């Protein structure tokens, strides 16, 4: 492959990576309202259930919308870091290996942030003394299956980043697909899983098979 053609192919990989990160960020902006439903209606964070025989028995009483501003800031912070830092890494880091490693680490941090924070909140911010289940049990029920899919995606993405060749590319494609499955299982996680999906897709783009990059280059040339 000539130097000019190789440069065009590499540029295509970078552009695909940046587009993937930004697309993940936009997905949260469009569908992020599901996170509020998860936190309040399914996990019952900042909610409590009244004692049997009381007026609030068998009913969750939750904080108003303002009471969840802290939640929005905590989750939004990771979204901002993932999108901004991920976009800069995809665009500016020239080494494909280094870029892929950084993108996977950011994706792992984003997944750990949403899973860890919601798990912690379920253990400490739910007034479950009179509830039929503990706060952690609500988390296991609402988030558990999606958490397994998300963690699997990160592990597969890490394996892809540590490999080269066609196998690496195949695993790189499978990783963001696993995160999409996670979001389907629990849409409320989209606040951090959408950018994480974009980051893993970006890592796959930076490590894509040369044939795929060449096809992308031809497509850009024809457009």
Would you kindly provide a brief summary of this structure?
The chain is mostly helical. It has eight helices and three strands, in the order H-H-E-E-H-H-E-H-H-H-H.
What is the structural class?
Answer: mainly alpha
Order the strands across the largest sheet as they lie in space: 2-1-3
Number of domains: 1
Low-pLDDT segments: 1-6, 210-223
Mean pLDDT: 82
What's the helix-strand series? HHEEHHEHHHH
Throw out a few tags for this protein.
223 residues, mainly alpha, 3 strands
Write structural notes for this entry.
With 223 residues, the protein is mainly alpha-helical. The longest helix is centred in the N-terminal third of the chain and has 29 residues, at 3-31. The protein has a 3-stranded mixed β-sheet with strand order 2-1-3. It contains 8 helices and 3 strands; from the N terminus they run H-H-E-E-H-H-E-H-H-H-H. The chain has one domain (9-54, 61-217).
SSE blueprint:
Blueprint: H1 3-31, H2 33-42, E1 47-49, E2 60-62, H3 69-92, H4 96-124, E3 126-127, H5 135-161, H6 165-185, H7 190-206, H8 210-222
Parallel strand pairs: 1-3
Antiparallel strand pairs: 1-2
Helix pairs in contact: 1-3, 1-7, 1-8, 3-4, 3-7, 4-5, 4-7, 5-6, 5-7, 6-7
């Amino acid at each position: 492959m000539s130097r000019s053609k190789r440069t065009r192919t590499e540029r295509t990989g970078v552009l695909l990576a940046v587009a993937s990160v930004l697309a993940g960020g936009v997905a949260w902006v469009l569908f992020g309202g599901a996170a509020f439903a998860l936190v309040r209606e399914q996990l019952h964070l900042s909610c409590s259930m009244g004692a049997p025989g009381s007026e609030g028995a068998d009913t969750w009483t939750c904080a108003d919308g303002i009471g969840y501003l802290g939640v929005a800031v905590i989750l939004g912070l990771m979204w901002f870091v993932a999108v901004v830092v991920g976009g800069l890494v995809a665009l500016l880091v020239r080494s494909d290996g280094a870029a892929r490693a950084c993108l996977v680490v950011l994706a792992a941090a984003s997944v750990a942030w949403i899973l860890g924070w919601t798990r912690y909140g379920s253990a400490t911010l739910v007034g479950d003394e009179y509830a039929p289940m503990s706060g952690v049990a609500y988390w296991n029920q609402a988030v558990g299956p999606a958490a397994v899919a998300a963690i699997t995606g990160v592990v597969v993405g890490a394996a892809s980043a540590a490999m080269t060749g066609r196998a690496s590319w195949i695993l790189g494609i499978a990783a963001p697909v696993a995160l999409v499955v996670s979001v389907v299982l629990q849409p409320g996680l989209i606040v951090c899983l959408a950018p994480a999906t974009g980051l893993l897709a970006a890592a796959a783009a930076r490590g894509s098979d040369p044939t795929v990059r060449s096809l992308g280059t031809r497509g850009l040339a024809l457009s």
